[in-house]
Structures are given as structure tokens and as C-alpha cells.
Design brief:
Keywords: Oxidoreductase. The chain has about 325 residues and is α/β, with parallel strands linked by helices. It has helices at about 40-45, 115-135, 150-160, 175-180, 195-205, 220-225, 250-255, 265-270, 270-285, 305-310, and strands spanning about 1-5, 15-20, 30-40, 65-70, 85-90, 95-100, 105, 140-145, 165-170, 185-190, 210-215, 230-235, 260, 295-300, 320-324. It is built from 10 helices and 15 strands.
Length: about 325
């Protein structure tokens, strides 16, 4: 089969599109013929050696795919060859086939196209977990989303709105803000045209924000950390801006708010029941039209480097998807 292979930690341009052995089915697993694979910011960090996980070489990146089961291993009576599924894998998604534990397989409703199903898992599941289990956001609270036109940002806007929050979208251009508004944002802030801290104070009447979904880092994080409401929750989701900020802990003390890490991958391992319940709720919301996947582009698998660079450069509105 063809796959994108990382032979060493290096710039994205050094990834190789090459032939590799097909995965061999084993007990408790299935083989999925990949129809579409989601592209995520951590994928680009991973292949450069900048992510918290550092797998042995060679490896195939990619952790969310949609496809059709082609082989079923022993001990998996409830999955059948030919089923359309979402497969959640730690590695291996950027390929024509992938081996996946049966516990991380989920049938796809007919209403969800492959390219949207492949892009639903990481972004929406991360935002869902962040707002539900971590922040425990309540109807009527304010939710500020940074990078609100990216894949996980748009997901947080949609899910926050569904959970009853007043959503404040923070983006770098009017075009991105317009997209956030189309997805449910109530208040729009262009941080390139105004001081973010001042703008947050104005739109919250000086109260500050109850929940911040922060996935940019750097100066954006610092502005948010100084704009929290009493009993607020500052969610640390990622650092798409490239700078991991240092946090003055006295701010949490004085302002009485919590700083919460959000690592969806670990959540799926530590809380599998809650993870399964979350996915059922997400799929139900999708079918009901309460959330949707905005796919910026679908590109051939061999052009994965171009897709990754677009994601890493924050040029994507919504999600990028690869198609073998």
C-alpha cells in the first residue's frame, strides 16, 4: 500500500510518499481501507519531533480516518467486513489501509460523507471534551474561542453555542470572523485591529470571560490570562501560534480562576466510557444539524506535505482532509 512515512524528525518537506507493507489483522483489531484522513496541527509537530509523543522510526502519521472495514480479527463479533466506520488511531492514518483496535472503531451514519467523518473526530471531540468534562460550561456563561476559524476553533464555537454559552470569537481577519459568525459566534474580535485585553473587557462589561478555549498561545494566551472572570476556566488546548507561554501563577490566585490542560488523546485512554458517550452525543448532534464539519479542502494523499504546511501556517478555515 501507499503511505506517508516519517523516517526521521525533520521539516514536513522530508516526509516520503512510498510503498509500505499492508497491515496484518490481529486479535481484537480490524483493518480499514482508508477513504479519507483528517489533517491536524499536532501531526505537523509530531513529524518534526516537537510533540509530546515521539514514536520510533519509521512511522506513519495520522490519527483520524474514515473508511470501510476490509478485515476483522478474532474476537470482534460486532464489526463486519464492508461496514463504513470512523477509526481512531494513534498513528498510521496517512495511508491506504490502517490497523485499528476494535474499541476505537465507530460506525458512520449514512448522513455523514467520508471526508467530513474523517475530520469530525479530533477537532470536535477535543472541543467537546474541553467544554463538557474540563470546563463543565453552563448555559448563560461566556466562552471565548481563540483561533475560532480553525478546525478545533470552529468546533468549539458550534459546541459552545449548543451548550448554551454566549460565544466570543477571536480571529486575525474579517473573513475568518465571518466564518465563526456563520457557525454560531455571538461576538467577534479581530485581534489585529484592537487590543485583545481591552476588547474583552468591553464586550464583557468588565466582568471577564467565564471560559476561554485557548489554542494559539503566545501573546494571545497572555491577554486571555488577564481577562478571566471570577471562577473562570482557562483551557490550554494548544499553541498554534508557535510560542508556548509561561504563566504567572499569581494571576490564578488573585483572580480566582482555574487553568486546565486539555489532552483529548489521554482522555480517550483514561476515561473510555465518557469518551464513548461523548462520541455518541457528537454523532447525534451532527445528524440533527447542531454541529457540522467545515472542510476547507480535500487533497490527494501524496500531497500530504502541502496540506500539513497549510495547517501549520494557519491558512485553513475549518479542516483539511487527505484522500488516498
Amino acid at each position: 500500500m501507499k503511505a506517508i512515512v516519517c523516517e526521521e524528525f525533520a521539516p514536513v518537506e522530508q516526509l516520503q510518499y512510498k510503498d509500505v507493507p499492508d497491515p496484518v489483522v490481529k486479535k481484537g483489531h480490524v483493518v480499514v481501507d482508508v477513504k479519507a484522513c483528517g489533517v491536524n496541527f499536532p501531526d505537523g509537530l509530531l513529524v518534526q519531533g516537537l510533540y509530546q509523543m515521539k514514536p520510533p522510526f519509521p512511522f506513519i502519521p495520522g490519527n483520524e480516518v474514515a473508511g470501510v472495514i476490509s478485515e476483522v480479527g478474532e474476537g470482534v463479533p460486532y464489526l463486519k467486513v464492508g461496514m463504513r466506520v470512523i477509526a481512531m488511531v494513534m498513528l498510521g492514518g496517512y495511508a491506504e489501509k490502517v490497523l485499528c483496535p476494535a474499541t476505537h472503531i465507530m460506525p458512520i451514519p449514512d448522513e455523514i460523507p467520508d471526508e467530513e467523518a474523517a475530520a469530525l473526530v479530533t477537532a470536535h471531540a477535543t472541543a467537546h471534551h474541553a467544554l463538557k468534562q474540563r470546563a463543565q460550561i453552563k448555559p448563560g456563561e461566556t466562552l471565548l474561542v481563540t483561533g475560532a476559524a480553525g478546525g478545533t476553533g470552529l468546533a468549539a464555537v458550534q459546541i459552545g453555542k449548543e451548550m448554551g454559552a454566549t460565544v466570543i470569537a477571536v480571529c486575525s481577519t474579517q473573513e475568518k470572523l465571518d466564518m465563526a459568525k456563520e457557525n454560531g459566534a455571538d461576538i467577534l474580535i479581530n485581534y489585529t485591529e484592537t487590543d485583545l485585553k481591552t476588547a474583552i473587557k468591553e464586550v464583557t462589561d468588565g466582568k471577564g470571560v467565564d471560559v476561554v478555549y485557548e489554542c494559539v498561545g503566545g501573546d494571545t494566551f497572555h491577554a486571555c490570562s488577564r481577562s478571566m472572570a471570577w471562577n473562570g476556566r482557562l483551557l490550554v488546548v494548544g499553541f498554534a501560534g508557535g510560542t508556548i507561554p509561561e504563566f504567572p501563577v499569581n494571576l490564578a490566585l488573585v483572580k480566582g480562576y482555574s487553568v486546565m490542560g486539555v489532552f483529548w488523546g489521554s482522555f480517550t485512554q483514561h476515561q473510555p466510557k465518557e469518551f464513548a458517550d461523548n462520541m455518541k452525543e457528537l454523532l447525534m448532534w451532527y445528524v440533527q444539524g447542531k454541529v457540522k464539519v467545515v472542510v476547507d479542502d480535500v487533497v490527494p494523499l501524496e500531497n500530504a506535505k502541502d496540506a500539513l504546511n497549510k495547517v501549520m501556517n494557519r491558512e485553513v478555515k475549518g479542516k483539511m482532509t487527505l484522500r488516498p
